């Protein structure tokens, strides 16, 4: 096996071992990075829905409550939770994997009623008033799901519709009935904003980034191998090839050949100088024997 091929084989084995170690470390890092990125997107979405709620409370609600239609039937568009949920449904056209819910233990609208795992999150916030955010994973029929939740506290504007049936708008009572969504107290944690996304999303992001990393590392390795091969060819293989050719010539008695050039002070130059001296010594010895 030629020297250059041995060098490439050794370098390939070293690269493969290094790639395996680096790949294992990098994949875990990329998974965590993708998870953090998904959570940051979820935080932005949650913040956007809080803006929708504020806009509805401060601008849309005061306009609609004066309409006769609101007095007759009740316009859900005046409810911040309804506005946020509907806005997020439009947002899902661009982010179909994300879901949003303002889950409440005692919700007026049945679609906002908390299921078991959502109720556990709300109760956790109620038991830990200082906790402002909860991130976790849970099993679903379609696989693991990542969620981000923040508590929702009843403030005075909420009590206009959620304190007692007598204080609620008549249209609300006609639409939803007097049995759900009442008994809220100011400052009480009554619900949670929950943004969920399948774990398949960050895992796919990590896999895609890992694949791109492997391609880039492979390209760098090939380019480095070509440069190293050229350097090895010029600095080692060619000089050694000349030494080998001269040795072959001397072995068959051919002494009339130019000496090898000696450039520098590296091991190859020292070897070439030693070989030249050996050839001269051998040539003198042969002449002495012949004389």
State the main characteristics.
291 residues; alpha+beta; 2 domains; four-stranded antiparallel sheet; 8 helices
Average residue pLDDT? 83
What's the SSE pattern? Answer: HHHEHEEHHEHH
Strand percentage, roughly? 5-15%
Low-confidence blocks of residues: none
Fraction of residues in helix:
55-70%
Placed side by side, the strands forming the largest sheet appear as 1-4-3-2
Radius of gyration: 39 Å
Spatial shape: rod-shaped
Class per helix and strand makeup: alpha+beta
Report the total helices: 8
Major sheet description:
4 strands, antiparallel
Number of domains: 2
What's the β-strand tally? 4
Distance between the termini: 43 Å
Structure notes:
The protein is an alpha+beta fold and about 290 residues long. The chain folds into two domains: about 190 residues, no CATH class; about 80 residues, Orthogonal Bundle (Helicase, Ruva Protein, domain 3), CATH 1.10.8. About 60% of the residues lie in helices and about 10% in strands. It is built from eight helices and four strands, in the order αααβαββααβαα. It has a four-stranded antiparallel beta sheet with strand order 1-4-3-2, with helices on both faces. A hairpin with a 2-residue loop joins strand 2 and strand 3. Helix 1 runs antiparallel to helix 3, helix 1 runs antiparallel to helix 7 and helix 7 packs parallel to helix 8. The model has no long low-confidence stretch (mean pLDDT about 85).
């Amino acid at each position: 096996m030629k020297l250059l091929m041995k060098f490439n084989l050794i370098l390939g084995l070293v690269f493969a071992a290094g790639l395996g170690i680096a790949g294992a470390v990098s994949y875990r890092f990329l998974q965590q990075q993708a998870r953090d990125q998904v959570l940051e997107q979820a935080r932005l979405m949650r913040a956007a829905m809080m803006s929708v709620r504020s806009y509805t409370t401060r601008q849309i609600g005061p306009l609609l409550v004066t309409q006769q239609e609101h007095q007759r039937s009740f316009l859900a568009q005046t409810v911040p939770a309804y506005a946020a949920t509907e806005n997020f449904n439009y947002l899902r056209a661009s982010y179909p994997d994300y879901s949003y819910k303002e889950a409440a233990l005692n919700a007026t609208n049945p679609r906002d009623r908390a299921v078991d795992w959502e109720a556990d999150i709300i109760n956790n916030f109620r038991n830990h008033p200082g906790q402002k955010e909860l991130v976790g994973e849970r099993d679903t029929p379609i696989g693991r799901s990542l969620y981000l939740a923040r508590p929702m506290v009843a403030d005075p504007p909420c009590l206009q519709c959620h304190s007692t049936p007598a204080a609620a708008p008549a249209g609300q009572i006609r639409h939803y009935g007097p049995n759900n969504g009442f008994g809220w107290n100011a400052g009480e944690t009554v619900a949670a904003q929950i943004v969920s996304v399948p774990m398949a999303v960050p895992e796919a992001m990590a896999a895609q980034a890992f694949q791109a990393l492997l391609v880039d590392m492979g390209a760098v390795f090939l380019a480095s191998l070509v440069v190293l091969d050229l350097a090895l060819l010029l600095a080692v293989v060619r000089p050694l090839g000349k030494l080998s050719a001269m040795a072959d010539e001397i072995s068959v008695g051919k002494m009339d050949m130019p000496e090898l050039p000696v450039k520098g002070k590296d091991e190859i130059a020292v070897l070439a100088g030693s070989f030249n001296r050996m050839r001269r010594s051998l040539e003198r010895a042969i002449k002495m024997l012949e004389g």
